[in-house]
UniProtKB/TrEMBL annotation:
Main location as per UniProt: cytoplasm
Localisation: Cytoplasm
Reaction catalyzed: O-acetyl-L-serine + hydrogen sulfide = L-cysteine + acetate
Organism: Klebsiella pneumoniae IS43
Cellular component GO terms held in the UniProt record: cytoplasm
Name of the protein in its database record: Cysteine synthase B
Length: 356
């Protein structure tokens, strides 16, 4: 098991981690919501540009330490894009072949990034086909199927000092309110929400965890019913979050609140947020932001004085056009922008940005 190659591979991953700085925690002023302190955890500064860089590192270490990954082992992963990009990065670092199994509708930019890191893509027609196709490829190639949807919640060490939950609370330590009222995030595998939920409980914090879910995802329905057989005939249009089936890594019992976010609200809120941050963000960041605003309003109704939220910001070149055009238009778009910004002027500003 402890071959020279495995030792070298683990050393390479650990060295890569040491070369990386922690991601930023951005404080975002919200004049329309006085008394609310809001923070965003900017995971776009990872080498591969997203929160999934943490997950990919953990999955590779998990596979190496379990004896599943050896020198020359082909790595196969089912993904909607971001995890595959990050795993391709680590596969190249270790000199391993990498194949991403993805729906044919995956964004071209994600495909290009995977190929940039030396990976190749195997396409299937729908999101529901990625699991069986990945298992088949791993069997045929005598490779290792990473299976992020099963192993995400157990590969990450939620007790340690190198996970996103520990990072958030360390960075909050000198803020006016070191313990957030809420942490709001969306779920793709469910692994990060499991890590944060377990960490909060282990530390005895009063912080509550809200998971926001896009349309056509079954996570919220499962949280309400505990029916693991739930399926959605179509996948989420918000890239990277929401699933058409209940994933094994989704740890629902440590989620305090869930909220369904309309696709149009996700896109409109992302466009509004761009005017506040001065940078591009993805629709999933809009989903998260919508949830934070909802949590803030709930606190305000209970006469609570603050909301401190931390959640990953994924940087994108542009919002998906196929979603933007049919989902956001006219009065509906203006209404969501105004709600996100807390006033009509914020909505008009985002509308002008969209028009440009």
């Amino acid at each position: 098991m402890n071959s020279a190659w495995v030792k070298h591979a683990i050393s390479e991953i650990n060295a890569d981690y040491q070369r990386s700085a922690d991601t930023h925690l951005i404080r975002l002023p919200l004049p329309a919501f006085p008394g609310i302190h809001l923070y965003l955890k900017d995971e776009s500064t990872h080498p591969t540009g997203s929160l999934k860089h943490r997950l990919a590192r953990s999955l590779f270490l998990y596979g190496l330490c379990n004896g599943w990954i050896k020198e020359g082992t082909p790595i196969i992963e089912s993904s909607s894009g971001s995890t595959a990009v990050s795993e391709a990065y680590f596969a190249r670092l270790l000199g391993l072949p990498f194949i991403a199994v993805m729906p044919s509708c995956t964004a071209k930019r994600k495909i290009e990034q995977i190929e940039f890191y030396g990976g190749r893509c195997h396409f299937v027609q729908s999101a529901g086909e990625i699991y069986a196709a990945s298992e088949t490829l791993a069997r045929e190639l005598n490779g290792h199927y990473m299976d992020q949807f099963t192993f995400a919640e157990r590969a990450t060490d939620w007790r340690g000092n190198n996970n996103i939950a520990d990072s958030i609370f360390r960075q909050m330590s000198h803020e006016p309110h070191p313990q957030p009222s809420w942490i709001v995030m969306s779920a793709g595998t469910g692994g990060t929400s499991a890590t944060i939920g377990r960490y909060i409980r282990s530390q005895g914090y009063e912080t509550q965890l809200m998971v926001v879910d896009p349309q056509n995802s079954v996570f919220l329905d499962y949280w309400q019913t505990r029916d693991a057989s739930l399926r959605s005939p179509v996948g989420s249009k918000i890239e990277g979050i929401g699933r058409p089936r209940v994933e094994p890594s989704f740890y629902s019992r440590r989620v305090d609140e869930m909220l369904r976010v309309p696709d149009a609200a996700s896109v409109a809120t992302a466009l509004w947020l761009e005017t506040q941050l001065g940078r591009k963000v993805g629709a999933s960041t809009g989903t998260n932001m919508w949830g934070r605003i909802a949590a803030g309003r709930a606190d305000a109704r209970r006469r609570s004085h603050r909301l401190d939220s931390d959640t990953p910001v994924r940087q994108r070149r542009a919002l998906p056009g196929k979603l933007l055009q049919p989902a956001v238009g006219g009065g509906q778009y203006r209404r969501y922008c105004a709600l996100a910004g807390g006033d009509r002027r914020s909505g008009r500003k985002a509308i002008k940005k969209k028009a440009r």
